[in-house]
Amino acid sequence: MNTLSPPDEVRGMRVFKIDKFTKPVTVPVIVINKNYVESANKVLKNYIIKLNNFKSIRSGSNDSECVFYLDPAKFSSCEDLNSSFVSTENLKYVQIEVGYNNWNHDEILKAVLPEKSMLSSYSAIGSIVHVNLKPELLDYKDIIGRVLNDKLKGCKSVVNKIDNINNVYRNFEYEIIYGSSDLKTTVKENKCVFDLDFSEVYWNPRLCTEHERILQKLKSGDVLYDVFAGIGPFSVPAAKLGCIVIANDLNPNSCKWLEINKKKNRIKDELLTIINKDGSKFIQEDLRAHYILWSKKITSDNNVHVTLNLPAIAVDFVKYFNNLFEWEEISDHSLPILHVYTFVKTDKNYEEGLKSIMEEYFSNIKDDDIQEIIRVRNVAPNKEMVRITFQMKKDILCKSESINKRKLNEIKIENDIKKSKDDS
Known about the structure:
424 residues, alpha/beta, four-stranded antiparallel sheet, 10 helices
Protein backbone atom coordinates (compact mmCIF):
# COMPACT_ATOMS: atom_id res chain seq x y z
CA MET A 1 0.00 0.00 0.00
CA ASN A 2 1.22 3.53 -0.77
CA THR A 3 2.44 4.97 2.55
CA LEU A 4 1.56 8.44 1.28
CA SER A 5 -2.14 7.52 1.16
CA PRO A 6 -4.55 8.61 3.91
CA PRO A 7 -4.28 6.51 7.08
CA ASP A 8 -6.29 3.30 7.35
CA GLU A 9 -7.86 4.58 10.58
CA VAL A 10 -10.17 7.00 8.71
CA ARG A 11 -12.08 4.15 7.03
CA GLY A 12 -15.71 4.36 8.13
CA MET A 13 -15.39 7.87 9.62
CA ARG A 14 -18.83 9.49 9.91
CA VAL A 15 -17.97 12.54 12.01
CA PHE A 16 -15.33 14.70 10.38
CA LYS A 17 -12.10 14.98 12.41
CA ILE A 18 -9.31 16.61 10.45
CA ASP A 19 -6.56 15.54 12.85
CA LYS A 20 -7.30 11.86 12.15
CA PHE A 21 -5.86 12.31 8.64
CA THR A 22 -2.44 13.41 9.88
CA LYS A 23 0.33 10.85 9.88
CA PRO A 24 4.16 10.71 9.83
CA VAL A 25 5.86 9.06 6.85
CA THR A 26 9.52 8.24 6.35
CA VAL A 27 10.62 9.08 2.81
CA PRO A 28 13.86 8.94 0.82
CA VAL A 29 15.47 12.22 -0.21
CA ILE A 30 18.26 12.86 -2.68
CA VAL A 31 20.56 15.82 -2.04
CA ILE A 32 21.99 17.23 -5.27
CA ASN A 33 24.42 20.02 -5.99
CA LYS A 34 22.44 22.88 -7.56
CA ASN A 35 24.66 22.74 -10.63
CA TYR A 36 23.11 19.37 -11.48
CA VAL A 37 19.49 20.14 -10.63
CA GLU A 38 18.28 20.21 -14.24
CA SER A 39 19.87 16.85 -15.03
CA ALA A 40 18.69 15.37 -11.74
CA ASN A 41 15.14 16.49 -12.40
CA LYS A 42 15.09 14.52 -15.67
CA VAL A 43 16.14 11.39 -13.79
CA LEU A 44 13.98 11.86 -10.69
CA LYS A 45 10.78 13.43 -12.10
CA ASN A 46 8.92 10.10 -12.04
CA TYR A 47 9.98 9.38 -8.45
CA ILE A 48 9.28 12.64 -6.65
CA ILE A 49 6.36 12.95 -4.23
CA LYS A 50 3.22 14.21 -5.91
CA LEU A 51 0.83 15.50 -3.28
CA ASN A 52 -1.30 18.62 -3.02
CA ASN A 53 0.33 21.45 -1.10
CA PHE A 54 3.64 19.62 -0.90
CA LYS A 55 6.86 21.01 -2.35
CA SER A 56 8.89 18.04 -3.61
CA ILE A 57 12.00 19.97 -4.63
CA ARG A 58 13.44 22.30 -1.99
CA SER A 59 16.59 24.19 -1.15
CA GLY A 60 19.04 22.28 1.01
CA SER A 61 20.74 23.17 4.29
CA ASN A 62 23.17 25.35 2.40
CA ASP A 63 22.83 27.44 -0.73
CA SER A 64 24.68 24.98 -2.94
CA GLU A 65 22.26 22.07 -2.37
CA CYS A 66 18.85 21.07 -3.62
CA VAL A 67 16.76 18.30 -2.01
CA PHE A 68 14.40 15.97 -3.93
CA TYR A 69 11.70 14.29 -1.81
CA LEU A 70 10.88 10.87 -3.29
CA ASP A 71 7.82 8.67 -3.07
CA PRO A 72 8.77 5.51 -1.12
CA ALA A 73 6.30 3.48 -3.19
CA LYS A 74 8.14 4.36 -6.41
CA PHE A 75 11.77 4.56 -5.31
CA SER A 76 13.66 1.54 -4.02
CA SER A 77 17.37 2.19 -4.60
CA CYS A 78 19.78 4.51 -6.41
CA GLU A 79 20.85 1.60 -8.63
CA ASP A 80 17.46 1.75 -10.37
CA LEU A 81 18.17 5.31 -11.50
CA ASN A 82 21.24 4.45 -13.59
CA SER A 83 22.69 7.93 -13.06
CA SER A 84 26.31 8.94 -12.54
CA PHE A 85 25.53 11.86 -10.26
CA VAL A 86 22.83 10.21 -8.12
CA SER A 87 24.28 7.63 -5.73
CA THR A 88 23.83 6.27 -2.22
CA GLU A 89 26.09 9.08 -1.02
CA ASN A 90 23.33 11.52 -1.99
CA LEU A 91 20.58 9.43 -0.34
CA LYS A 92 19.12 9.77 3.12
CA TYR A 93 15.78 9.20 4.83
CA VAL A 94 13.74 11.82 6.64
CA GLN A 95 10.36 11.92 8.34
CA ILE A 96 7.64 14.16 6.97
CA GLU A 97 4.07 14.77 8.07
CA VAL A 98 1.18 14.46 5.63
CA GLY A 99 -2.47 15.21 6.24
CA TYR A 100 -5.90 16.26 5.00
CA ASN A 101 -4.62 19.18 2.90
CA ASN A 102 -2.31 16.92 0.89
CA TRP A 103 -5.03 14.82 -0.78
CA ASN A 104 -7.82 15.62 -3.24
CA HIS A 105 -11.50 14.80 -2.69
CA ASP A 106 -11.30 11.49 -4.53
CA GLU A 107 -8.36 10.24 -2.44
CA ILE A 108 -10.02 11.32 0.81
CA LEU A 109 -13.39 9.73 0.02
CA LYS A 110 -11.84 6.48 -1.21
CA ALA A 111 -10.09 6.22 2.14
CA VAL A 112 -13.17 7.05 4.23
CA LEU A 113 -16.11 5.36 2.49
CA PRO A 114 -16.83 1.60 2.49
CA GLU A 115 -14.73 -0.04 -0.22
CA LYS A 116 -17.78 -1.48 -2.01
CA SER A 117 -19.83 1.76 -1.87
CA MET A 118 -17.83 4.57 -3.40
CA LEU A 119 -19.22 7.92 -4.60
CA SER A 120 -19.59 7.25 -8.31
CA SER A 121 -19.92 10.81 -9.59
CA TYR A 122 -21.10 14.35 -8.96
CA SER A 123 -22.18 17.34 -11.05
CA ALA A 124 -20.91 20.88 -10.69
CA ILE A 125 -23.49 23.59 -11.42
CA GLY A 126 -21.55 26.81 -10.93
CA SER A 127 -20.87 27.01 -7.19
CA ILE A 128 -23.20 24.09 -6.40
CA VAL A 129 -22.13 20.45 -6.31
CA HIS A 130 -24.94 17.97 -6.85
CA VAL A 131 -24.66 14.34 -5.72
CA ASN A 132 -27.06 11.43 -5.89
CA LEU A 133 -26.13 9.31 -2.90
CA LYS A 134 -26.93 5.62 -2.75
CA PRO A 135 -28.80 4.51 0.40
CA GLU A 136 -25.67 2.89 1.84
CA LEU A 137 -23.81 6.22 1.68
CA LEU A 138 -26.41 8.34 3.48
CA ASP A 139 -24.69 7.77 6.83
CA TYR A 140 -21.61 9.43 5.33
CA LYS A 141 -23.36 12.42 3.77
CA ASP A 142 -21.88 14.91 6.27
CA ILE A 143 -18.34 13.75 5.48
CA ILE A 144 -19.01 13.68 1.72
CA GLY A 145 -20.45 17.19 1.79
CA ARG A 146 -17.58 18.58 3.86
CA VAL A 147 -14.87 17.01 1.67
CA LEU A 148 -16.43 18.14 -1.62
CA ASN A 149 -16.94 21.65 -0.27
CA ASP A 150 -13.33 21.82 0.95
CA LYS A 151 -11.68 20.30 -2.09
CA LEU A 152 -13.64 21.50 -5.13
CA LYS A 153 -12.71 24.99 -6.24
CA GLY A 154 -15.55 27.52 -6.03
CA CYS A 155 -17.96 25.16 -4.25
CA LYS A 156 -20.29 26.89 -1.77
CA SER A 157 -23.08 24.29 -1.45
CA VAL A 158 -23.38 20.51 -1.73
CA VAL A 159 -26.87 19.12 -2.38
CA ASN A 160 -28.11 15.56 -2.45
CA LYS A 161 -31.04 14.48 -4.61
CA ILE A 162 -33.59 12.68 -2.44
CA ASP A 163 -36.32 12.06 -5.03
CA ASN A 164 -36.72 11.71 -8.78
CA ILE A 165 -37.93 14.46 -11.11
CA ASN A 166 -41.58 13.66 -10.68
CA ASN A 167 -43.45 16.96 -10.68
CA VAL A 168 -44.82 19.15 -13.43
CA TYR A 169 -42.16 21.79 -12.90
CA ARG A 170 -39.28 19.45 -13.78
CA ASN A 171 -37.26 19.80 -10.60
CA PHE A 172 -36.59 17.41 -7.76
CA GLU A 173 -36.51 17.27 -3.98
CA TYR A 174 -33.08 17.76 -2.46
CA GLU A 175 -31.29 18.32 0.82
CA ILE A 176 -28.32 20.57 1.47
CA ILE A 177 -25.71 18.34 3.05
CA TYR A 178 -23.08 21.05 3.40
CA GLY A 179 -22.64 24.78 2.86
CA SER A 180 -24.94 27.67 2.04
CA SER A 181 -28.70 27.31 1.65
CA ASP A 182 -28.62 30.02 -1.03
CA LEU A 183 -28.62 28.03 -4.28
CA LYS A 184 -28.35 30.94 -6.71
CA THR A 185 -25.43 30.46 -9.05
CA THR A 186 -24.07 31.20 -12.53
CA VAL A 187 -22.98 28.76 -15.23
CA LYS A 188 -21.40 29.23 -18.64
CA GLU A 189 -22.30 27.13 -21.67
CA ASN A 190 -22.00 27.54 -25.44
CA LYS A 191 -20.70 31.12 -25.18
CA CYS A 192 -23.64 32.18 -23.02
CA VAL A 193 -24.00 32.95 -19.32
CA PHE A 194 -26.93 31.58 -17.31
CA ASP A 195 -28.08 32.71 -13.88
CA LEU A 196 -30.31 30.30 -11.98
CA ASP A 197 -31.60 29.24 -8.61
CA PHE A 198 -31.08 25.49 -8.34
CA SER A 199 -33.91 25.26 -5.79
CA GLU A 200 -36.38 26.55 -8.40
CA VAL A 201 -35.29 25.22 -11.80
CA TYR A 202 -33.63 22.29 -13.53
CA TRP A 203 -30.09 22.35 -14.93
CA ASN A 204 -27.94 19.40 -15.97
CA PRO A 205 -24.34 20.17 -16.99
CA ARG A 206 -24.04 16.70 -18.54
CA LEU A 207 -26.28 17.84 -21.40
CA CYS A 208 -23.84 20.51 -22.58
CA THR A 209 -22.58 18.40 -25.50
CA GLU A 210 -26.13 17.62 -26.61
CA HIS A 211 -27.10 21.28 -26.45
CA GLU A 212 -24.13 22.02 -28.68
CA ARG A 213 -25.15 19.31 -31.18
CA ILE A 214 -28.53 20.97 -31.69
CA LEU A 215 -27.01 24.44 -31.98
CA GLN A 216 -24.72 23.19 -34.75
CA LYS A 217 -27.85 22.38 -36.78
CA LEU A 218 -29.10 25.98 -36.53
CA LYS A 219 -28.21 29.11 -38.47
CA SER A 220 -29.33 32.73 -38.53
CA GLY A 221 -32.86 33.07 -39.86
CA ASP A 222 -33.99 29.61 -38.74
CA VAL A 223 -36.98 29.27 -36.43
CA LEU A 224 -36.81 27.33 -33.14
CA TYR A 225 -39.81 26.34 -31.07
CA ASP A 226 -38.49 25.22 -27.67
CA VAL A 227 -41.45 23.43 -26.07
CA PHE A 228 -39.77 22.68 -22.71
CA ALA A 229 -37.24 25.50 -22.63
CA GLY A 230 -36.17 25.53 -18.98
CA ILE A 231 -33.89 28.51 -18.39
CA GLY A 232 -32.82 28.51 -22.03
CA PRO A 233 -29.86 26.20 -22.84
CA PHE A 234 -31.26 25.84 -26.39
CA SER A 235 -33.18 29.11 -26.68
CA VAL A 236 -30.63 31.68 -25.54
CA PRO A 237 -27.66 30.57 -27.69
CA ALA A 238 -30.01 29.95 -30.65
CA ALA A 239 -31.32 33.52 -30.41
CA LYS A 240 -27.76 34.73 -30.09
CA LEU A 241 -27.06 32.98 -33.42
CA GLY A 242 -29.84 35.03 -35.00
CA CYS A 243 -32.63 32.44 -34.91
CA ILE A 244 -36.25 33.40 -34.26
CA VAL A 245 -37.00 31.58 -30.99
CA ILE A 246 -40.34 30.97 -29.28
CA ALA A 247 -39.51 29.45 -25.89
CA ASN A 248 -42.06 27.89 -23.56
CA ASP A 249 -42.00 26.35 -20.10
CA LEU A 250 -44.71 25.42 -17.64
CA ASN A 251 -42.58 26.39 -14.64
CA PRO A 252 -43.00 30.13 -13.99
CA ASN A 253 -39.60 30.17 -12.26
CA SER A 254 -37.96 28.80 -15.41
CA CYS A 255 -39.57 31.62 -17.40
CA LYS A 256 -38.40 34.14 -14.80
CA TRP A 257 -34.78 32.99 -15.09
CA LEU A 258 -35.07 32.67 -18.86
CA GLU A 259 -36.09 36.34 -18.97
CA ILE A 260 -33.10 37.21 -16.77
CA ASN A 261 -30.76 35.25 -19.04
CA LYS A 262 -32.26 36.85 -22.12
CA LYS A 263 -31.27 40.26 -20.76
CA LYS A 264 -27.94 39.04 -19.40
CA ASN A 265 -26.93 37.81 -22.87
CA ARG A 266 -28.34 40.92 -24.60
CA ILE A 267 -30.90 39.07 -26.70
CA LYS A 268 -33.28 41.31 -28.63
CA ASP A 269 -37.02 40.97 -28.01
CA GLU A 270 -37.73 40.22 -31.67
CA LEU A 271 -35.44 37.18 -31.51
CA LEU A 272 -36.70 35.54 -28.31
CA THR A 273 -40.31 35.33 -27.11
CA ILE A 274 -40.99 33.64 -23.76
CA ILE A 275 -44.28 31.87 -22.99
CA ASN A 276 -45.44 30.20 -19.77
CA LYS A 277 -48.00 27.43 -20.34
CA ASP A 278 -48.46 23.69 -20.70
CA GLY A 279 -46.57 22.21 -23.65
CA SER A 280 -49.71 20.85 -25.33
CA LYS A 281 -51.39 24.27 -25.29
CA PHE A 282 -48.21 25.92 -26.49
CA ILE A 283 -48.10 23.60 -29.51
CA GLN A 284 -51.79 23.92 -30.31
CA GLU A 285 -51.99 27.68 -29.79
CA ASP A 286 -48.73 29.65 -29.92
CA LEU A 287 -46.61 27.37 -32.11
CA ARG A 288 -49.52 26.89 -34.50
CA ALA A 289 -50.30 30.60 -34.82
CA HIS A 290 -46.67 31.62 -35.19
CA TYR A 291 -45.85 28.92 -37.72
CA ILE A 292 -48.84 29.79 -39.90
CA LEU A 293 -47.55 33.38 -39.99
CA TRP A 294 -43.93 32.44 -40.62
CA SER A 295 -44.70 29.66 -43.07
CA LYS A 296 -45.73 32.30 -45.59
CA LYS A 297 -42.56 34.36 -45.00
CA ILE A 298 -39.80 31.84 -44.45
CA THR A 299 -37.70 30.82 -47.45
CA SER A 300 -36.60 27.34 -48.37
CA ASP A 301 -33.09 28.37 -47.24
CA ASN A 302 -34.21 28.37 -43.61
CA ASN A 303 -35.32 25.51 -41.40
CA VAL A 304 -37.87 25.22 -38.63
CA HIS A 305 -36.81 23.20 -35.58
CA VAL A 306 -38.84 22.02 -32.60
CA THR A 307 -37.07 20.78 -29.45
CA LEU A 308 -38.99 18.63 -26.96
CA ASN A 309 -36.46 18.04 -24.20
CA LEU A 310 -38.50 16.51 -21.41
CA PRO A 311 -37.50 12.86 -21.83
CA ALA A 312 -39.89 11.44 -19.24
CA ILE A 313 -43.00 12.54 -21.19
CA ALA A 314 -41.92 14.32 -24.43
CA VAL A 315 -43.07 11.46 -26.67
CA ASP A 316 -46.64 12.04 -25.45
CA PHE A 317 -46.58 15.52 -27.01
CA VAL A 318 -45.73 14.39 -30.54
CA LYS A 319 -49.41 13.57 -31.12
CA TYR A 320 -50.31 17.27 -30.88
CA PHE A 321 -48.60 17.85 -34.23
CA ASN A 322 -50.99 15.47 -35.99
CA ASN A 323 -53.59 17.45 -37.96
CA LEU A 324 -52.41 20.66 -36.32
CA PHE A 325 -52.98 22.74 -39.46
CA GLU A 326 -55.35 23.08 -42.36
CA TRP A 327 -53.64 22.16 -45.62
CA GLU A 328 -53.90 25.66 -47.02
CA GLU A 329 -52.53 27.34 -43.89
CA ILE A 330 -48.89 26.37 -44.37
CA SER A 331 -46.45 26.18 -47.25
CA ASP A 332 -44.93 23.02 -48.67
CA HIS A 333 -41.34 23.83 -47.71
CA SER A 334 -39.46 24.31 -44.40
CA LEU A 335 -41.72 21.93 -42.54
CA PRO A 336 -40.79 21.42 -38.88
CA ILE A 337 -37.92 19.16 -37.87
CA LEU A 338 -38.68 17.61 -34.48
CA HIS A 339 -35.98 16.75 -31.92
CA VAL A 340 -37.73 14.50 -29.40
CA TYR A 341 -35.98 13.27 -26.25
CA THR A 342 -37.02 10.11 -24.47
CA PHE A 343 -35.77 7.39 -22.15
CA VAL A 344 -35.10 3.95 -23.58
CA LYS A 345 -35.24 0.99 -21.23
CA THR A 346 -32.38 -1.38 -21.92
CA ASP A 347 -33.35 -4.31 -19.70
CA LYS A 348 -32.71 -6.66 -22.63
CA ASN A 349 -30.71 -4.46 -25.00
CA TYR A 350 -30.73 -0.96 -26.46
CA GLU A 351 -32.06 -2.00 -29.88
CA GLU A 352 -35.15 -3.71 -28.44
CA GLY A 353 -35.83 -0.81 -26.09
CA LEU A 354 -35.63 1.69 -28.95
CA LYS A 355 -37.84 -0.47 -31.18
CA SER A 356 -40.51 -0.51 -28.49
CA ILE A 357 -40.51 3.30 -28.27
CA MET A 358 -40.62 3.71 -32.05
CA GLU A 359 -43.54 1.31 -32.46
CA GLU A 360 -45.59 2.94 -29.70
CA TYR A 361 -45.06 6.63 -30.45
CA PHE A 362 -43.63 7.01 -33.97
CA SER A 363 -45.51 4.43 -36.01
CA ASN A 364 -46.67 7.06 -38.53
CA ILE A 365 -43.10 8.30 -39.12
CA LYS A 366 -41.41 6.64 -42.09
CA ASP A 367 -37.83 5.44 -41.81
CA ASP A 368 -36.75 7.86 -44.55
CA ASP A 369 -38.00 10.79 -42.48
CA ILE A 370 -35.84 9.91 -39.47
CA GLN A 371 -32.69 12.02 -39.74
CA GLU A 372 -30.89 10.92 -36.61
CA ILE A 373 -31.14 8.81 -33.47
CA ILE A 374 -28.57 9.83 -30.87
CA ARG A 375 -27.77 8.12 -27.60
CA VAL A 376 -27.39 11.22 -25.41
CA ARG A 377 -26.25 9.69 -22.12
CA ASN A 378 -26.62 6.74 -19.81
CA VAL A 379 -29.02 7.66 -16.99
CA ALA A 380 -29.09 4.40 -15.03
CA PRO A 381 -27.85 0.81 -15.51
CA ASN A 382 -30.91 -0.06 -17.67
CA LYS A 383 -31.91 3.37 -18.90
CA GLU A 384 -30.58 5.64 -21.65
CA MET A 385 -31.57 9.12 -22.73
CA VAL A 386 -32.06 9.25 -26.50
CA ARG A 387 -32.87 11.92 -29.09
CA ILE A 388 -34.95 11.05 -32.16
CA THR A 389 -34.79 13.69 -34.91
CA PHE A 390 -37.21 13.46 -37.81
CA GLN A 391 -38.74 15.57 -40.57
CA MET A 392 -42.48 16.13 -40.25
CA LYS A 393 -44.51 15.64 -43.43
CA LYS A 394 -47.39 17.80 -44.51
CA ASP A 395 -49.86 14.93 -44.67
CA ILE A 396 -49.25 14.34 -40.93
CA LEU A 397 -49.26 18.01 -39.94
CA CYS A 398 -52.42 18.83 -41.86
CA LYS A 399 -55.98 17.64 -41.63
CA SER A 400 -56.81 15.21 -44.39
CA GLU A 401 -60.34 16.59 -44.49
CA SER A 402 -59.00 19.72 -46.15
CA ILE A 403 -57.78 17.69 -49.09
CA ASN A 404 -61.17 16.00 -49.39
CA LYS A 405 -62.96 19.33 -49.24
CA ARG A 406 -60.68 20.68 -51.94
CA LYS A 407 -61.47 17.70 -54.18
CA LEU A 408 -65.19 18.10 -53.52
CA ASN A 409 -64.95 21.79 -54.39
CA GLU A 410 -63.10 20.96 -57.58
CA ILE A 411 -65.79 18.40 -58.54
CA LYS A 412 -68.52 20.93 -57.72
CA ILE A 413 -66.86 23.56 -59.91
CA GLU A 414 -66.49 21.08 -62.77
CA ASN A 415 -70.17 20.10 -62.46
CA ASP A 416 -71.23 23.76 -62.38
CA ILE A 417 -69.24 24.46 -65.55
CA LYS A 418 -70.67 21.39 -67.26
CA LYS A 419 -74.21 22.37 -66.23
CA SER A 420 -73.67 25.91 -67.47
CA LYS A 421 -72.58 24.58 -70.90
CA ASP A 422 -75.55 22.23 -71.05
CA ASP A 423 -77.96 25.07 -70.25
CA SER A 424 -76.50 27.23 -73.00
